[in-house]
Design goal:
The chain has about 375 residues and is α/β, with parallel strands linked by helices. The protein is built from 13 helices and 17 strands. Bound molecules: pyridoxal-5'-phosphate (PLP). The site of pyridoxal-5'-phosphate has 14 residues, from helix 5. Pyridoxal-5'-phosphate (PLP) binds next to helix 5.
């Protein structure tokens, strides 16, 4: 089979693929059809938390497959309830709604925020404030939430009711929060697709306070930052804020599609019978895999992540051809003097897979990547940046 030719013939033209076919992997090592080995510094864009074909995760998934693969949400299933309980414990939230992708989790959060305000204040208070340069998904409503013009061309009309303010512009944020038209603020604490740019802690904490004072909900999009990625289970725990709704996906399933919207005491009963649903959401196989993943995000792993960040920064900061390193934990990006795409191609030729975000080189490796592999990957990056 000529995969490139048949991909072009049969797959919609939405992806610009690298010239690489991946056929198998073991932890942070991936292999193409010629048997060439690559160190995976992208983790399937923050999905493969414990790398490829992790044995423990695979066992959990296969055990559930041997019992039952799907039942529909008309029946109780043990993995779904166990996962919800576990996520609530890790996040201090109260209830979970499961879906299949990050965009769907954000859709759920947006619906819940609008309903919260509708129930209490009537139907005029429906605006949601997000940030410029944010990314919240690719459905029409989550695109409307996304604060980047490049995603907006060709798809209008968009869902009404989104306002985009500049990152760290608290004066403008506060004005909107106090306007009596806004039901929620939705933030990624580190803008992932926007270039791996952390928000200022003071801005986030002031926004939280203004939201609380005005009964405006704070939604934190943890789709890329969650499940240990930044060195905390969720990044809002590092920012020391208490969101009303949290959305989580990507790494949650360790490679199978699952997402969650988590609700606190204020929002846990907003969605009621029939107001939302999903055929596959909370599928027992995905939940069984996710339980295994979430149970393994422990303090030892989180402190190792911080140590790995330190090591990466130590190796890269001040090195020839490198302007800066941004991000947190194992969600990092490197601004380089040379073109990022050229560097990524060079690293790939030398057996390391990196990602880009805007004009930066981005890394989201498996959280338990071996130090030896990580340091080798960083040395190859450093060499390519010179
Ligand atoms: N929100 C954030 C912060 C993301 O990074 C992404 C995906 O990159 C999404 C939402 C959308 O997630 P999905 O592609 O699973 O719909």
């Amino acid at each position: 089979m000529n995969i490139k030719k048949e991909d072009k013939l049969y797959i919609a033209n939405t992806y610009k693929r690298f010239d690489l076919d991946l056929v198998k992997g073991q932890k942070e090592l991936l292999y193409d059809s010629n048997g060439k080995e690559y160190i995976d510094m992208g983790g399937g864009i923050a999905v493969n938390i414990f790398g490829a074909s992790d044995l423990q995760w695979k066992d959990a998934v296969i055990s559930q497959l041997n019992l039952i693969q799907h039942t529909s949400n008309l029946y109780y299933t043990y993995p779904q309830v166990q996962l919800a309980k576990l996520l609530c414990k890790k996040s201090s939230m109260k209830k979970a709604f499961f879906s299949n992708s990050g965009a769907e989790a954000n859709e759920c959060a947006i619906k819940a925020a609008r309903k919260y305000s509708h129930d209490l204040y009537g139907n005029e208070r429906y605006f949601i404030v997000t940030l410029k340069n944010s990314f919240h998904g690719r459905t029409i409503t989550t695109l409307s939430a996304t604060g980047q013009d490049m995603f907006h061309k060709d798809f209008g009309p968009f869902t009404d009711g989104f306002i985009h303010v500049d990152k760290d512009d608290f004066a403008s944020m506060e004005e909107h929060i106090k306007s009596n038209k806004v039901c929620a603020v939705m933030l990624e604490l580190i803008q992932g697709e926007g270039g791996v740019i952390p928000l200022d802690i003071d801005f986030v904490q002031k926004t939280e306070k203004a939201c609380k004072d005005n009964d405006v909900l704070l939604i934190i999009d943890e789709i890329q930052t969650g499940i240990g990625r930044t060195g905390a289970f969720y990044s809002y725990q590092k920012y020391e804020v208490n969101p009303d709704i949290v959305t989580s996906a990507k790494g949650l399933g360790g490679g199978l599609p699952i997402a969650a919207a988590l609700f606190n005491e204020k929002t846990e009963n907003v969605l009621d019978y029939g107001s939302h649903g999903s055929t596959f959401g909370g599928n027992p196989v995905c939940c069984a895999g996710a339980i295994n993943i979430v149970n393994r995000i422990n303090n030892k792993l989180l402190s190792d992540i911080i140590e790995k960040e330190k090591k990466i920064r130590e190796m890269l900061e001040g090195a020839k051809g490198i302007e800066s390193v941004s991000g947190m934990g194992l969600m990092l990006a490197v601004k380089t003097k040379k073109d990022a795409k050229e560097i990524v191609a060079k690293c790939m030729a030398n057996g390391v897979l990196y990602l880009t975000a805007k004009d930066r080189i981005r890394m989201l490796p498996p959280l338990d990547i071996k130090k030896k592999s990580m340091e080798k990957a960083i040395r190859i990056l450093k060499e390519a940046c010179k």
